[in-house]
Specification:
The chain is α/β, with parallel strands linked by helices. It has 18 helices and 8 strands. The chain folds into 2 domains: about 260 residues, Alpha/Beta hydrolase fold, catalytic domain (Rossmann fold, 3-Layer(aba) Sandwich); about 120 residues, AhpD-like.
């Protein structure tokens, strides 16, 4: 298992993705562990090398004695990055992780490229509230606060209907070492960054939840967004664990904020790269070779806007975009394009089962004849045959 000894603690971490990509560090809420970010990681790996870790006192990381501080936990992050040879990174922290992010923004701005502060605060309520929680855990263990925590983590609707995330997070919370939890409670109890927020000079996004009773927008996210220079803000229809209640919206916000916006030149370059990756070099090379004064503007149009503007959007993965394109072509009877995209799809992300499900969906919403032709074309491509005509095979 991957462990790093840093800052006098043994920390568990997961580093995934290609080494040449920029690093994004994800820091979880109090009482949970690195698995909290599971819904976002697969899509993030297309753009980043992702570093998740268990905060000191949580998950598989060491439970050191005594009370912790946000500074201590922030130095843990720097020590972990140093041990892995990571100099610069983007950082996204939720709740406790957001407090750690604030400390890094103030004290280690030279290490950060961007900062995302989700469902967090510059001051986490009254000291007496934390003292009460600490006492409850010391006397009754994690079971003493699990119901209260779950009511804060999730909205009532999620608690009633979306049991997968709820049951998983409840298990992690109950399995958290009480001493580690108490240590981090003390860190949040003593944390107050209100006077230093204006010293955060890295690009910052503040995410808040409309149903978050732990760190509601008024007095929490609103303060961060107002006091951090040029900070952006976003409110999601979610409770405290907004990345679990609105996983796709949270992911879209991360990608929109963290990925650079393309100018026209880079959009065209990205369009060519995506076009090659999606359709294959042979097809693109033939299209380029066939470009002339009559069709040059059209080739530039589809490269810049179809491939460089739409297909480069990170909110949908390539597999989903392929299936959407194929379903649309089948519905409209664009069979020559359909066959080309089927061949390209089978050469990359798609499998026969993907085409089957897409065509069954097409049969219901676009008609059985369209699906019938689509199945025949896909079968011919699988068998290595070619189209008899642009209209598809004869029945």
């Amino acid at each position: 298992m991957p462990f790093a000894n840093c800052n006098n603690a043994r920390l568990f971490y997961r580093l995934e993705g290609l080494p040449e990509k920029a690093v994004l560090v994800l820091s979880h809420s109090i009482g949970l562990d690195h698995a909290m970010w599971a819904p976002q990681v697969p899509d993030l790996l297309a753009h980043f090398q992702v570093l998740r870790y268990d905060t000191r006192g949580h998950g598989a990381s060491e439970v050191t004695k005594g009370e912790y501080s946000i500074e201590l936990l922030g130095r843990d992050v720097l020590g972990l990055a140093d041990s892995l040879g990571i100099r610069k990174f983007a950082f996204c922290g939720l709740s406790l992780g957001g407090a750690i992010g604030q400390w890094l923004g103030v004290n280690a701005a030279d290490r950060l490229t961007s900062l995302v502060l989700a469902n967090t605060s510059p001051k986490f309520g009254e000291r007496s509230n934390w003292e009460t929680r600490i006492e409850m855990v010391r006397k009754g263990g994690m079971a003493a606060i699990v119901d209260m925590a779950m009511q804060r983590f999730f909205s009532q609707q999620t608690l009633e209907h979306y049991t997968a995330y709820v049951s998983a997070m409840k298990s992690v919370l109950l399995g958290t070492d009480p001493a580690g939890y108490v240590g981090c409670c003390a860190a949040l109890r003593d944390f107050d960054s209100r006077q230093s927020l204006r010293n955060i000079r890295v690009p910052t996004l503040v995410i808040s939840g409309d149903h978050d009773i732990s760190t509601p927008w008024p007095g929490n996210g609103e303060v961060l967004a107002r006091e951090i220079p040029n900070a952006r803000s976003l409110q999601l229809l979610a409770a405290h664990l907004s990345n679990l209640e609105r996983p796709r919206s949270f992911l879209a916000a991360l990608l929109e904020f963290l990925l650079p916006e393309l100018d026209e030149t880079r959009r065209s370059e990205a369009g060519f790269a995506v076009r090659r990756a999606t359709l294959g070099d042979d097809h693109v090379d033939r299209a380029i070779a066939a470009t002339n004064d009559f069709n040059r503007e059209f080739q530039e149009l589809i490269t810049r806007y179809a491939w460089g503007t739409i297909w480069t959007r990170p909110e949908l993965d390539v597999r989903t975009r392929r299936l959407l394109a194929l379903a649309t072509m089948a519905a409209l009877g664009r069979w020559e394009e359909f066959a080309m995209h089927v061949r390209a799809g089978f050469a990359h992300e798609l499998e026969p089962c993907d085409l089957k499900e897409m065509l069954l969906q097409t049969a219901i919403y676009a008609g059985v004849p369209a699906a019938n032709t689509g199945f025949q074309i896909a079968q011919r491509v699988l068998e290595g045959g070619e189209l008899q005509s642009a209209r598809g095979p004869k029945k």
